[in-house]
């Protein structure tokens, strides 16, 4: 039983009763519009067609997760110990210093979303790694619950057992387990979900807050600018914070460091448990893809891990320095995608295939010696999906990025975006597809 075969069966099902499913799609759209699946004030765009995976795929995701965590742990540990190695990353001193502070729970990346282009275990390629402010758990959960109530999945459920991935409650449980490593005596830590209010995903934060409270923990959502460090403890007004679920991305912490001195000093003094710690920035910054291909990095990996990097991490280089680098990227427009080292949500990303040669040269001049990376472009795998246009139904091919959520160093669930452009993200035309495990 393969995922593409299951996918085609679902297409056949929808085509067998187009009118009724079109009506149900409109009802489903209303439900999503009234749900917590909101991004930047608007309902998350979706299709009446989940991303189907089999138990074989899940085993693949578990192995991929284990392999990438093993590799990145070795890199992070070396970053902590080796001053010369740290120079490869070029991080600001503030972040470099914060990374080296012991987080108190012995996990480098407690939570992350590792995005890949995926077909099967032999055919996948990493796109990017998000370990700062990893998001979109609620999008998958909320839309998944709604789609399970749709007529299409109810009917498909007569043929297959369909299971969504739960990503909210499971993270709450894992974060408390991690906190227990930090402080085994405090069984009821006060929790704060912390991000800058202008950047946070408020609807998602509310879902996590509800889950913490449901499980018996106090929980608030806080802007780091409002936090005060006094008497060796971090506070929001009279609320003492024991556990920070950090959703602040590091580059924004750097930009606004002068606005959050209390938060930073409390972090330095280990006045609270921060999950995840700034240590995870070693993996989050896109420079990791370049560092992984460096010879001295490969030498510290096992033979199997070296092969993993060479086959599944796209070759990446710093776009600056020698003029030969500029000319090489300029002459190979269709081979490369350009990425800022440390921005999220595809900000500043552009692909050579989207531009004429003259436009490409102009874009490259702006990016040259400006904290950009050039990376081998990988053409995503395409899967057919059902798309409704009013009462008309079409079958269209979409490229996809599959995000592997890794909690506490183990595969936890999925987040999938699909699109038809060369960049699949919230800054372009895209859809979020809930992920479903399908069994006979």
Please describe what this structure looks like.
39% of the residues lie in helices and 25% in strands. With 440 residues, the protein is α+β, with helices and mostly antiparallel strands. The protein has three domains: 3-76 and 111-166 and 382-439, no CATH class; 169-281, 3-Layer(aba) Sandwich (Rossmann fold); 316-377, 2-Layer Sandwich (Dna Ligase, domain 1), CATH 3.30.1490. Strands 4, 5, 18, 19, 20 and 21 form a six-stranded antiparallel beta sheet that branches. Strands 8-7-12-13 form a four-stranded parallel beta sheet, with helices on one face. The N and C termini lie close together (9 Å).
Radius of gyration: 22 Å
The number of E-state strands comes to 22
The number of domains is 3
Number of helices: 17
**Which class do the helix and strand fractions yield?**
alpha+beta
| Mean pLDDT over the full residue set | 93
Query: What fraction, in percent, of the residue positions are helical?
Result: 25-40%
Query: Describe the biggest sheet?
Result: 6 strands, antiparallel
Low-confidence stretches: none
End-to-end distance = 9 Å
Strand residues, percent: 25-35%
Shape: globular
SSE arrangement:
Blueprint: H1 3-15, H2 18-33, E1 38-39, E2 42-43, E3 51-53, H3 55-81, H4 83-86, H5 93-99, E4 111-120, E5 123-130, H6 137-148, H7 151-156, E6 161-164, H8 169-182, E7 191-194, H9 202-214, E8 219-222, E9 228-230, E10 233-236, E11 239-241, E12 243-246, H10 250-255, H11 261-268, E13 273-275, H12 281-284, H13 287-293, H14 295-298, H15 303-312, E14 316-318, H16 323-331, E15 336-340, E16 350-351, H17 357-367, E17 372-376, E18 382-389, E19 392-407, E20 410-419, E21 431-433, E22 435-439
Parallel strand pairs: 3-22, 7-8, 7-12, 12-13
Antiparallel strand pairs: 1-2, 4-5, 4-19, 6-22, 9-10, 10-11, 14-17, 15-16, 15-17, 18-19, 19-20, 20-21
């Amino acid at each position: 039983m393969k995922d593409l075969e299951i996918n085609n069966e679902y297409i056949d099902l929808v085509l067998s009763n187009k009118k009724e499913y079109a009506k149900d799609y409109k009802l489903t759209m209303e439900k999503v519009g009234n749900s917590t699946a909101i991004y930047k004030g608007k309902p998350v765009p979706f299709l009446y067609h989940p991303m189907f995976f089999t138990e074989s795929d899940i085993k693949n995701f578990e192995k991929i997760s284990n392999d990438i965590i093993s590799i990145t742990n070795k890199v992070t540990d070396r970053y902590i110990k080796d001053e010369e190695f740290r120079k490869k990353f070029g991080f600001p001193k503030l972040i470099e210093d914060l990374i080296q502070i012991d987080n108190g729970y012995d996990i480098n990346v407690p939570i992350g979303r590792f995005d890949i282009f995926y077909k099967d275990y032999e055919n996948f390629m990493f796109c990017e790694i998000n370990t700062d402010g990893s998001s979109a758990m609620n999008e998958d959960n909320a839309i998944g619950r709604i789609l399970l109530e749709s007529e299409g999945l109810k009917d498909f459920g007569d043929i297959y057992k369909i299971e969504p991935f739960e990503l909210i409650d499971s993270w709450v449980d894992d974060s408390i387990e991690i906190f227990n490593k930090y402080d085994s005596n405090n069984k009821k830590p006060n929790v704060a979900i912390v991000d800058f209010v202008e950047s946070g995903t408020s609807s998602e934060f509310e879902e996590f807050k509800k889950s913490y409270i449901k499980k018996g923990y106090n929980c608030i959502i806080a802007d780091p600018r409002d936090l005060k460090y006094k008497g060796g403890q971090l506070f929001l007004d009279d609320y003492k914070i024991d556990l920070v679920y950090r959703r602040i991305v590091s580059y924004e912490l750097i930009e606004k460091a002068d606005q959050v001195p209390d938060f930073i000093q409390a972090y330095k003094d280990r006045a609270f448990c921060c999950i995840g710690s700034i240590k995870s920035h070693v993996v989050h910054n896109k420079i990791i893809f370049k560092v992984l291909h460096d010879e001295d990095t490969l030498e510290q990996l096992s033979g199997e891990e070296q092969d993993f990097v060479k086959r599944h991490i796209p070759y990446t280089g710093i776009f600056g320095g020698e003029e030969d680098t500029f000319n090489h990227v300029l002459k190979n427009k269709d081979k490369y995608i350009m990425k800022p080292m440390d921005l999220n949500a595809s900000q500043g990303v552009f692909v050579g295939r989207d531009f004429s040669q003259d436009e490409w040269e102009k874009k490259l001049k702006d990016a040259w010696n400006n904290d950009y990376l050039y990376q081998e472009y990988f053409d995503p795998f395409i899967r057919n999906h059902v798309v409704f246009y009013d009462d008309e139904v079409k079958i269209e091919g979409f490229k996809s990025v599959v995000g592997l959520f890794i909690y506490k160093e183990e595969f936890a669930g999925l987040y999938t975006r699909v699109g038809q452009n060369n960049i699949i993200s919230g800054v372009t035309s895209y859809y979020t597809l809930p992920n479903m495990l399908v069994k006979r």
